[in-house]
Each structure stands twice: as structure tokens, then as C-alpha cells.
Design a protein that fits this description.
Order of helices and strands: HHHHHHHHHHHHHHH
Number of strands: 0
Shape: rod-shaped
Largest sheet: none
Helix content: over 70%
CATH class of the largest domain: Mainly Alpha
Strand content: under 5%
Radius of gyration: 31 Å
Distance between the termini: 102 Å
CATH architecture of the largest domain: Alpha Horseshoe
Length: 290
């Protein structure tokens, strides 16, 4: 039995090892071309203070990599090399496309590869954002966040664009992840809260409400009241908008109006003791004529 078990285990070991052993080596001509490309890339990095894809050594590196790809079209080594070379030469478009091709064909990114791919993806994304194309920028940032889940910058930008384009429900996950990656990031905490509020009350209503709070803090009460009124119009169920509208009216001694606004808030939040207090106080002062 022991011999049978040993024989079986040995056979299994050979079977599992067979795919790795069966992997064909890179053809010699392709290996030579790839070695030449790597040498030209190393030389370019050592020669140029700033890297650009139109410089001669980079052009030689690309040509050698493409030659290796032609000689070994089913092998991923030349694809990975070209993706790295494009990345390090700052040729972001082809770099991103080639990394995507490498992944699509089953290539596995190591930590260095992931950093290169994330960098070129973010560069392209920011360029699209600056050019006024937020959807293209978002697509790239989301792709980077997927291939590099620990990249805080990609999550921040994806969340930012989703908030800016009034898609707060989708933004929440990105801001939450950004905060997980950096718990001390006050910006991420702020925008996570903002996105969560917008998901409940609507982006336009929350933006109007927050503008009202900012104006209130500057003691610009009539303008603040206008923003709170706009927020309550955009979403009639927005409790805080009604309550703050009541607060501004109360502080301007407009007690009848304050009672009306606080009353609307009280109907929406009947268990809120603070709102109940202020609606009663506004009614009392309105009735007394003070």
C-alpha cells in the first residue's frame, strides 16, 4: 500500500508540475531581441536626465521589444517589457493600452508593474479631467482603483468626480475606501459625509443647504435663508433645511415664519425634542407679538 501511495503521489506531483515544465522557452531570436530592448532601456535611463519616447535610445528599445513580440506572439514577456518601456519613457497612452493587453491575456502584475500601470492610468485620467471629459477620467480612475486597490489617489479622484457629476451613491464606496487607506484624511471624511447626505437628500438640495450654512456662519442671514429655502424646495422632506430656515427666521425676529418652518420640520421629525422646543417657542413669541 505504501508503494502504491508513494507512486500515486509522485504521479500527481509530475502532473501538477507538467504545465510549468511544458511552458515553451522564449525562442532564441525573440530572447535576443528582448535582451537588446532591455539593454537600450537601461542605457536610456542612464543617459537622459528626462525621459521622452521620441529619444533615440527609447526608439531602439521599443523597436527591439516589438521585434520580440513579432517573433513570439503568444509569449507575454515582450508585452510586459513594452508596457514597462512605454511607462518609463512617459508614453502614457501606449503604456496603458499595453498593460491592459497584458492583463487581458492573463499576465500577472507584480508590485513594480502595478505601480507603473497605476501611474500611467492616473496620468491619463487627470489629463482627461483637465480637458473637461470627466467620464473618461472616471473610467481610468476606476480601472486604476481595481488593479491597485491600495491606491488612495485613484479612489479619491473617482469619488470626487462621482460627487461632482451628482452620482453620490456610487461615490460613497470610493470615499470610504480612501478613508480606510488613510484614517487621518480629513478631506476623505468630509466628502464621505457629503456623499452620504447627497445620497439621501439629493445633490442639489445638499449643496444648497451647505451653502446656506456657510452664509449663516458669515452672518449673511437673508442669503442663507434663500439657500435653505431652495434646499427645502428641491427636497420637501429635508428636515435640516426646514429647521435651519426656521432658525434664520427666528434670529431675525420673524417668529410667525419661524413657527411655519419649524412646524414643517416637526412634522417630518416628530420625535426631535429640539425642533419641538423651537416650534413652540416661535409660536409663543408670534402670538405674544414680541
Amino acid at each position: 500500500m505504501f508503494r502504491t501511495l508513494t507512486t500515486t503521489l509522485a504521479a500527481l506531483a509530475i502532473a501538477f508540475a507538467a504545465p510549468a515544465l511544458a511552458q515553451p522557452a522564449l525562442p532564441q531570436a525573440a530572447a535576443d531581441a528582448l535582451a537588446e530592448g532591455e539593454a537600450r532601456m537601461a542605457e536610456a535611463l542612464a543617459t537622459y536626465e528626462a525621459q521622452y519616447p521620441d529619444r533615440p535610445l527609447w526608439q531602439d528599445a521599443f523597436a527591439a521589444g516589438r521585434r520580440a513580440m513579432t517573433l513570439a506572439p503568444d509569449d507575454l514577456e515582450p508585452v510586459r517589457f513594452l508596457a514597462e518601456a512605454y511607462s518609463r519613457s512617459q508614453w502614457t497612452g501606449p503604456a496603458w493600452t499595453t498593460w491592459q493587453d497584458f492583463i487581458r491575456r492573463g499576465g500577472v502584475l507584480d508590485a513594480e508593474d502595478r505601480a507603473y500601470a497605476a501611474d500611467v492610468g492616473k496620468r491619463l485620467a487627470y489629463g482627461a479631467y483637465e480637458a473637461g471629459n470627466p467620464d473618461a477620467a472616471l473610467e481610468r480612475y476606476v480601472a486604476v482603483a481595481e488593479l491597485a486597490p491600495d491606491d488612495a489617489e485613484a479612489h479619491v479622484w473617482a469619488g470626487r468626480i462621482l460627487v461632482e457629476t451628482e452620482r453620490p451613491e456610487q461615490a460613497i464606496a470610493y470615499w470610504r475606501r480612501a478613508l480606510e487607506l488613510d484614517p487621518d484624511d480629513a478631506r476623505a471624511a468630509y466628502f464621505l459625509e457629503l456623499a452620504q447626505e447627497q445620497a439621501v437628500w439629493g445633490s442639489a438640495a445638499v449643496n444648497a443647504f451647505r451653502a446656506g450654512v456657510a452664509l449663516y456662519e458669515e452672518d449673511r442671514l437673508p442669503e442663507a435663508a434663500e439657500r435653505f429655502a431652495r434646499a427645502s424646495t428641491l427636497n420637501g422632506g429635508y428636515v435640516d433645511a426646514w429647521a435651519w430656515l426656521g432658525r434664520v427666521a427666528f434670529e431675525q425676529s420673524q417668529f410667525a415664519d419661524a413657527a411655519t418652518y419649524y412646524g414643517s420640520a416637526a412634522r417630518l421629525a416628530p420625535d426631535d425634542d429640539d425642533i419641538a422646543y423651537w416650534v413652540n417657542e416661535a409660536r409663543r413669541l408670534a402670538a405674544s407679538g414680541d
